[in-house]
Amino acid sequence: MQTVELITRKRDGGTFSTGEIAWLIEHYTQGSIPDYQMAALLMAIYLRGMDSRETSDLTLAMARSGVQLRVNTQVSPVIDKHSTGGVGDKVTLAVAPLVAACGVAVGKMTGRGLGHTGGTVDKLESVDGFHVELTRDEFMRILQEHQIVLAGQSSELAPADGKLYALRDVTGTIESIPLIASSIMSKKLAVGASHLLLDVKFGSGAFMKTIEQARQLAHAMVEIGRAAGLHTVAAITSMEQPLGRAIGNAIELREAIDILRGQGPADVSELCYHEAAELLMMTGKATDETAANQIVAQAIQSGAAVKKLAEVIAAQGGNPRQIEQPELLPTAPIKTMLKSPRGGYIATINAEGIGVASMHLGAGRFKKGDPIDHRTGLILQAKAGDHLAAGDPLIEIHARDEQEAHDIQSSLIACYQWSESPIQTQPLIHDIIR
Ligand code: URA
């Protein structure tokens, strides 16, 4: 088979057979197809798309490119939860221990921040000693002993995605529904949980800017999951403004602890409790929404949920006292309150702009491998729909020094649009695809 024939066929709008896709992935993973040919092929897929059979074949070929953990052969049910990425998205940090505290096992591979979006691994690494590099045996042991494990991405798992993702990142081919769906779902199938909840985000802080694109992506992933025997549900949720109030690493972990104690901001708490309840229903732990909500509320009120977070932190080498006493988490040396430049209702807060500002403070990476500063970030003092007077607190900036705190102020102000009249805010959850 000649790679160039496949490139020209896709360029001209053709389709690939199951065997051709398996051949492409096998040879690219081995290194016998060069990056320049794969880059051309990715651009052809980006422009011409793939039908659902091709997308599913691509996902399966990528999932089989490395080790398959099959966690559900040893622990079942075991859930996985994945967000397509956003700003202030600490949902996994709260939902994973919450569900485990409700008696359902959670086996999750989780990632680092990508562009302006934050990553669960980076947030967890705010805790002294916590580590996510686990062998397969450690992964299974921690899951069996604690009903929860939060591992980092392994190079053994779906290695084809590791190579393809790095190439897409530098060839303008990220925002493609078949490529995103196969990238995410290949990793999920390689882990092999029994139930998967996808949080597919749309809006200014998400990769999918419109609800229609998010819906298409969600349907593509749910279809792939179901065809592979993985019980998959997708929530379509808004990322039009940052989620909750904290954007950063240690400060987001602190907010997740507040959520687990029932003291978090309303929007993100509601989303976390809803997702946890959905997972309890999916796995049969609760028969209906009322029963699921009661189990979730009990885990919060009894303190079991926050205790489970401390337990997994300790199991993976971290200091659990920093969860019990979040004031022990690292904090930035400089805290500056940015005041509102005007009065009025906040109409919108550009989530991507806020994410980029937080990267400038050191909370994210501009290049792969850049170090991050776990202490820095932003705390929003008001959200879309709130009314402020000129001079009211707008954002607390957590910075490494005075200069950095000063330098990002004008770009932060530019993230806000204002209205003279009250704003009707939209619900966070727009749809659930079951
Ligand atoms: N997350 C992934 O794992 N892959 C993508 O392509 C986009 C987001």
Automatic annotation (TrEMBL):
Matching PANTHER family: THYMIDINE PHOSPHORYLASE (PTHR10515:SF0)
Name of the molecule in the record: Thymidine phosphorylase
Description of how the protein assembles with itself and partners: Homodimer.
Gene3D superfamilies: Nucleoside phosphorylase/phosphoribosyltransferase catalytic domain, Pyrimidine nucleoside phosphorylase-like, C-terminal domain, Transferase, Pyrimidine Nucleoside Phosphorylase, Chain C
Record InterPro entries: Glycosyl_Trfase_fam3, Glycosyl_Trfase_fam3_N_dom, Glycosyl_Trfase_fam3_N_dom_sf, Nuc_phospho_transferase, PYNP-like_C_sf, PYNP_C, Pyrmidine_PPas_bac/euk, Thymidine/pyrmidine_PPase
Start and end residues of each Pyrimidine nucleoside phosphorylase C-terminal domain: 345-419
SMART domains assigned to the protein according to its UniProt record, in alphabetical order: PYNP_C
Entry annotated with the keyword GTP-binding: no
Keyword terms, alphabetized: Glycosyltransferase, Transferase
Family, per entry: Belongs to the thymidine/pyrimidine-nucleoside phosphorylase family.
Organism, scientific name: Dictyobacter halimunensis
Keyword flag Glycosyltransferase: yes
